[in-house]
Amino acid sequence: MRFELTPRPNVSPVMRALAPGAAFVTAFLIAGFVIWLMGRSPVAAFDVYVLQPLSDPWSLQELLVKATPLTLIAIGLSYCFRANLWNIGAEGQYVIGAVLGSWLALKTHGTEAGFWVLPLMLLLGIIGGALYGLIPAFLKTRFGVNEILTSLMLVYVAQLVLDYLVRGPWRDPKGFNFPQSVTFDPSATLHPILEGGRVHFGAVFALIAVLLTAVILGRTLFGYRLKLTGDAPRAARFAGFSSNATTMAVFAISGGLAGLAGISEVTGQIGQLQPSISPGYGFTAITVAFLGRLNPIGILIAALVVALTFIGGESAQIMLKLPLDLTQAFQGILLLCVLAADALVSYRVRFVSRGGSK
Q1: What's the pLDDT score for residue 322?
Q2: Domain contains 333
Q3: Which of 6, 44, 132, 224 lies 20 to 30 A from 28 at CA?
């Protein structure tokens, strides 16, 4: 006995709309069962993971702070994924964007440079991420190298470069030998939107990216080009769309947004370079992109949901003594549940005997 998935002739729009909610509930039930097996109360875990962060003003600000880089990176990844190209190296592009933008902050440190420093740092962050994203794109278009492997391996190169810089030439000489750069000057810092708040202007960049991407993907020829390239590559070639040009373009956009996320996080949240400037935003953003079904508005909502699990996971680690790795496991379970729900909405499960009878 085996089972097959056959396409449904008519997919219900209601079921498709309800699928993410059902997947979210299923993921919570699975996570609750795991927490119960660990000897903790699932109800208490739900309260710590969800209810408390949503009822605390500080946690709500932190929710937006953590959702900002996830949104920027996931929006960039959606360009690649829509074209059926796999950029798994956004984490490395995030790091390189932060490194290149921070170079200017360190060069101008203590010089009382003007207002031009921060905009140029953001631009350098975008350029750094885009150039780093173009490496796997070039290798794919020129030599046919698989972009999954190259983009992923380049993540570790970027992390080692950052580690070398903050432990070597860029280390703060007055930092008591800690692996970190000097604290950036105020002119090189992304200030909070509200005085005394936690949410910086990177959140505005994320909203702009969401709105622009919604227009580009839904209203422009470039958006149609990505959809056609991903759904029907041969038809895209017959229409005159170059697959190589599309590959280079989407990897540059994806890397540029990841680099913007990196430099925004360093200038707005951290204030200096450190070996760990990301808790894995680049990899988590892959989950966010698919949770949002590669739709800009969906990605924004998914980023908020996943950011909630980050905050709840940190609280659960303190209050319930649950391991922080459980948060990453939950994010993986959530992605699997969403993919399974989409599959069950679009396909019908049929059981087939070995003889072929249904």
Answers
A1: 87
A2: no
A3: 6
Count: domains in the chain: 1
The answer, yes or no, to whether residue 357 has pLDDT greater than 60, is: no
Q: Which structure tokens are listed for 253?
A: 């956009």
Structural domain includes residue 37: no
Which residues, in sequence order, are CB contacts of 341 under 8 Å at separation 6+?
Answer: 19, 20, 22, 23, 26
Tell me if 348 is assigned to some domain: no
In whole angstroms, give the CA distance from residue 253 to residue 81: 12
The Cα 118–Cα 108 span in angstroms is: 11
pTM over 0.90: yes
- What type of residue sits at position 322? L
Q: How confident is the model at residue 128 (pLDDT cuts 50, 70, 90)?
A: very high
What pLDDT does residue 263 have?
97
In the chain, helix, strand, coil percent, each to 5?
70, 5, 25
Q: Which two tokens stand for residue 20?
A: 């993410």
Long-range contacts, stretch 24-32, CB < 8 angstroms, 24+ apart: 24/305, 24/334, 24/337, 24/338, 26/337, 26/341, 27/330, 27/333, 27/334, 27/337, 30/333, 30/337, 31/326, 31/329, 31/330, 31/333
Residue 260 has pLDDT above 90, yes or no: yes
CA distance 116 to 188: 9
Classify residue 257: in a domain, yes or no: yes
Q: What is the mean pLDDT of residues 81-90?
A: 96
Q: For residue 354, is pLDDT > 70?
A: no
Half-sphere exposure of 37 (CA within 13 A, CB side): 7
Q: If you average pLDDT over residues 6-10, what whole number do you get?
A: 84
